[in-house]
Design brief:
- Keywords: Kinase, Transferase.
- This is Putative NBD/HSP70 family sugar kinase.
- One of its GO terms (molecular function) is kinase activity.
- The protein has about 325 residues and is of the alpha/beta class.
- The chain folds into two domains: about 110 residues, ATPase, nucleotide binding domain (Nucleotidyltransferase, domain 5), CATH 3.30.420.40; about 150 residues, Nucleotidyltransferase, domain 5 (2-Layer Sandwich).
- It contains ten helices and 13 strands.
Length: about 325
């Protein structure tokens, strides 16, 4: 008697960062079926070639008949999710001219639909998918830059120019450091991982943060002063999110978030210090809304796959 084998519907998410590509294959219910990680090459053609190889490897490794229903990409730079182009992803060798990444990868994998999303927004949607908060969610990404992702009323907020959440470029101090955007005294120059690294240079942002927290904990007075100043900037960024969209959860993410619980605890303390003397801020209890991005799953890749599912629903239901 013939045995009928059902075809499994799969979505793939790719988080293409400056140093690595994290990939995940999700089943129709949003469950993680397989993951992969590879170094990120430089240049458009090599990025597409590697991404195509990752997709092929994930699908081939699942066994049995598989229907690849779509691919989502999270990538840094200026992304147009409507036409699938990306530009100014400097770490990937992509300059100011738009690159049709969606079309290039779709062609390389046989015409499967591809959706491209900014990496912070993909991570935000992944966090929303996994944490399932009771209300809105904001994600604060503390990396080389500083940016936020916002989910409001169940929808990823982009804005007219896809600039929603770019709070790192709020110019706060006209006498402050020059920002990469050309302004002076932006929030990014106070609270990004690059701001911490500038004042405490010990490798990249993540290693500098680890070293700074350890030195401050060991009683180094200069480390303590640098950390307190930086935490005040991060707390200001959290307050900005709390006062503009009032989310139920504010997730700390990015390279500096690898510090883990000490970061969560320290930012919470900084928020409580800033709220002293203000019944209004105290009543908001922003410190109680903080959460860390889960580290046991490829959140950005999951978010990219789930974003693709929302753009091209097909037979796929993301795990919410």
């Amino acid at each position: 008697m013939a045995v009928l084998t059902s075809t499994r519907t799969v979505r793939i998410g790719l988080d293409i960062g400056g140093t690595k590509i994290d990939a995940v294959a999700l089943g129709a219910g949003g469950e993680v079926l397989a993951t992969d990680r590879r170094p990120t090459p430089t240049g458009v053609l090599d990025v597409v070639s590697t991404a195509s190889a990752v997709v092929t490897g994930l699908v081939g490794g699942l066994g049995g008949p598989v229907h690849l229903d779509g691919i989502g990409i999270g990538i840094p730079g200026l992304v147009d999710p409507v036409d699938g182009t990306v530009r100014n992803a400097v770490n990937l060798g992509l300059g100011p001219d738009p690159v049709d990444l969606a079309d290039l990868l779709s062609t390389a994998v046989g015409g499967v639909p591809v959706v491209v999303e900014n990496d912070v927004k993909a991570t935000t949607w992944g966090a929303y998918t996994l944490l399932a908060p009771p209300g809105d969610l904001a994600l604060l990404s503390l990396g080389t830059g500083l940016a936020a992702g916002l989910v409001v009323n169940g929808e990823l907020l982009r804005g007219a120019g896809s600039a929603a959440g770019e709070i790192g470029h709020l110019a706060l101090d006209p006498r402050g450091h020059v920002c990469n955007c050309g302004q002076r005294g932006c929030l990014e120059t106070l609270a990004a991982g690059s701001a911490l690294q500038r004042d405490w240079p010990h490798g990249d942002e993540g290693r500098s943060a680890d070293h700074l927290f350890a030195a401050a904990d060991a009683g180094d007075p200069r480390a303590g002063a640098v950390l307190e100043r930086w935490l005040a900037g991060v707390a200001l960024a959290v307050r900005t999110l709390g006062l503009t969209c009032d989310p139920s959860v504010i997730v700390l993410a990015g390279g500096v978030a690898g510090v883990g619980e000490p970061l969560h605890r320290s930012v919470s303390q900084a928020l409580r210090r800033q709220a002293r003397g203000s019944a209004f801020l105290t009543g908001l209890a922003l410190d109680e809304r903080l959460a860390l991005l889960p580290t046991d799953r490829p959140v950005a890749a999951i978010g990219a796959a789930a974003t693709a599912a929302r753009t091209h629903p097909g037979a796929f239901t993301p795990g919410r």
